[in-house]
């Protein structure tokens, strides 16, 4: 069911839905493996789709950790709302990641420890990508980390504009294979 939903959403919204299938378990593991769940007070996720990474984070975060998830696609938002309706310190937002700062202000959150992203930067409009990455850099704590995956390294120059240190790992066991980028200032 999830694959057909992804294909349908990709056909309807190819610029904002970057995949035709949910992320694999291996990719989900690579995305969250270095998160310090014991010490994170706030984690944000951009573009969770149907919640593969979301579920992994919810299963490992402390109850006191605030977890903000921002999904632009209304259909995916509804799936997530139903799927995770009973979770503690879980804030689900139906909006663009460009506007995250407004929500952090609303909830009196100054900085975040980790931002996990499933956004398709290769297909997002350039101005939107720049705004999202600018907000990301601004809201991360000094030792915070931005973790994203991409199917190509086409946008590396853009990522390097915002982050000094980027570690890259390739995940072959995903459809299609993907690169995990762990970015720090």
TrEMBL record:
GO terms for molecular function: methyltransferase activity; RNA binding. Keywords: Methyltransferase, RNA-binding, S-adenosyl-L-methionine, Transferase. SUPFAM superfamilies: S-adenosyl-L-methionine-dependent methyltransferases. The keyword tRNA-binding does not apply. One of its GO terms (biological process) is methylation. This is Ribosomal RNA adenine dimethylase.
């Amino acid at each position: 069911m999830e694959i057909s939903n992804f294909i349908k959403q990709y056909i309807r919204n190819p610029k904002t839905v970057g995949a035709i299938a949910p992320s694999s378990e291996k990719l989900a593991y690579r995305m969250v493996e270095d998160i310090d769940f014991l010490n994170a007070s706030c984690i944000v996720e951009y573009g969770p789709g149907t919640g593969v990474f979301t579920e992994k984070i919810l299963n490992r975060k402390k109850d006191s950790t605030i977890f903000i998830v921002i999904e632009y696609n209304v259909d995916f938002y509804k799936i997530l709302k139903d799927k995770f309706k009973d979770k503690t310190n879980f804030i689900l937002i139906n909006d663009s990641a460009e506007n995250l700062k407004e929500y952090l202000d609303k909830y009196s959150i100054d900085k975040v420890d980790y931002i996990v992203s499933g956004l398709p930067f290769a297909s997002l409009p350039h101005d939107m990508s720049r705004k999202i990455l600018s907000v990301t850099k601004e809201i991360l704590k000094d030792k915070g980390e931005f973790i994203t995956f991409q199917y190509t390294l086409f946008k590396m120059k853009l990522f390097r504009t915002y982050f000094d240190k980027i570690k890259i790992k390739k995940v072959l066991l995903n459809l299609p294979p993907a690169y995990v980028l762990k970015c720090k200032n």
